[in-house]
Design brief:
transcription regulation; 9-stranded antiparallel beta sheet; transcription; HTH_bacterioopsin; 9 strands
């Protein structure tokens, strides 16, 4: 967990969140695809409608997620929308679909975060049954702790602070380029970093890393090549 003591005053937090009865966590845990949560609109009654981008390595992965969302007991309606925005020209994964999903706002942490004066700074990333929020907050370290504890109490959420920066740090192109990685590319690249593959001397060979992932060395190097290209080249294609 990031050290909340290291900052006071205005901060930007990245939070990893799990909470019960959430359809986005349910469907991304069940399927290999992910979601970007953009905007929520009020509807009649007690429901809200959210705009989401469903993304994945393949069309089949995205179709599987959409089907899971449609049959979920936690959603009321799922409809596809025509793409109108490119979100800075980049979309995660290799393929995506824009969705409107109607659901009960009580099964979201959004209201609890807003009521505790957290301000959303970027679309929420959801994959592997976890939500990743980028938020601004204007408080000292003890105030941030209290606000997070209040959200935990209100929603029964498991919240981990993974990063704290000054608010003028911005989202940055690197963060958006990381969102371009497919789920498999992200998995391979993150494991390579964790196993010190990029250190000198290397902490693990490409062959051993491939064996750990149960893939061939050629496939490993191809995943890493594509991930590195997307992370290092802002003009790289998002279709590979």
């Amino acid at each position: 967990m990031a050290d909340v003591d290291s900052h006071s005053g205005q901060s930007r937090l990245t939070l990893e969140i799990w909470h019960p009865d959430c359809w986005t966590l349910e469907v991304t845990d069940e399927t290999p695809a992910g979601l970007l949560a953009h905007t929520v609109f009020n509807t009649s009654g007690e429901q809200v409608k959210g705009h989401f981008t469903a993304y994945g390595d393949t069309t089949a992965d995205v179709d599987e997620l959409v089907a899971a969302a449609e049959r979920s007991a936690l959603t009321s309606a799922v409809s596809e929308m025509q793409r109108r925005h490119d979100f800075r020209g980049r979309t995660p994964g290799n393929t995506s679909r824009e969705l409107f999903v109607e659901y009960d706002p009580e099964n979201s942490v959004s209201d609890a975060l807003v009521s505790n004066d957290f301000i959303q700074a970027a679309p929420v990333r959801v994959f592997d049954g976890r939500e990743y929020w980028s938020l601004f907050v204007d408080d000292d370290r003890e105030g941030v702790r209290k606000r997070l504890d209040a959200v935990r109490d209100e929603t029964n959420a498991d919240i981990t602070v993974t990063k704290i920066t000054r608010p003028d740090a911005g989202v940055g192109d690197a963060a958006w380029r990381a969102d371009e990685l497919s789920a498999r590319q992200r998995e391979v690249f993150e494991l390579a970093r964790k196993r010190d593959y990029y250190d000198w001397p290397r902490g693990i060979s490409a062959r051993d890393l491939a064996d750990e992932l149960d893939i061939s060395k050629t496939t490993l190097l191809e995943h890493l090549r594509k991930a590195e290209s997307k992370l290092l080249n802002p003009d790289s294609s998002t279709l590979s």
